[in-house]
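re: ur question from earlier - yeah i can do the single chain one, its not a big deal. heres the input i used so u can compare w yours
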Amino acid sequence: MASSIGWILLGLVVYLGYSKEKEKTKQEEEYKTVFEEKIIEERPYKILVAIKNPAVAKKLVTFARLLAKARNGEVILLSVIRLPDQTPLTAGRKYVKEQKEFIEELINLPEVSDIPVGGMLKIAHDIPEAILNAIEEEKADLLILGWRGRTFRRDYILGSTIDPVLFKAPCDVAVIRFEPSLEVGKLRRILIPTAGGPHARLAAELALDLNKVLGSGATLAYFAASEQERERAEKYIQDTADIEMPEGMEVKFEKLIKVSRNKIEALVREGDNFDAIIIGASNQPFLKNLIRGAFPEIIAKKTTKTVIMVRKKIEISEFLRRFKVWKK
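and the output i got, formated as tokens:
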């Protein structure tokens, strides 16, 4: 009996070792890090910024710098060179020099000289998987992504890169569609529509970070269809405001309850009075969002203001459940 158990345990060890080696080989085939600039002075909070479009990369990095400064954090820039599935990763090396210079230019921006900034460049067949791999490697606390504010694919909600990352990332996520004329360092008035929940509270936490660095003010808002929802609105606003304040910091959120038969239009009109709208990700199932349209995407289509959608870190049990659904 003891001998049988021993053989079973030995077999399990061999299997786990084989599985890890197989996964490592798969990763080497699917994505490869070809450049990395390490941070010497590591900080307790780590922000990973996925950069692609040069037109918004500087704004993403500047926004990340504000949050890192508020949280005594560091910023890691990630660029991914995507190749077709059948193309070997070695073929991507001809693009490395240009992308490496792009990363180094952002690392050396005067705007981020007061925080530690590093960078990495990966070649991959699948951009979302490369981003998820970087999150695991860096043990990131927050991922920041740029967003067009729309998708041209009917089979995706926010986009072919953003959807799987939002679904599976084991960290907080912020997806940003910038107003073209926005100066990130002048974000002064923030609108946070809320229906309670962890994602809305993350939106409030990021607003506090902006307050700490820029002195920004934030308004928690509920858009109701009738006066009968007022009690519920008060509850949701209080739930969102009930976040842990940094020691020695006292910030009061403004409160706004608007009654309108068209809540989306009311939100968009109110948003015109603010510099940015931070929206917590929907708690609705993905299929329902796909049928109705994703709430942040609807807002982004109707306003030119900066829209930031945030999603709180998924706990392990929820992550496993979602991962199984996503893989089916």
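Residues 18-25, 285-293, 316-328 have pLDDT under 50 and may be disordered. not sure if urs matches, ping me
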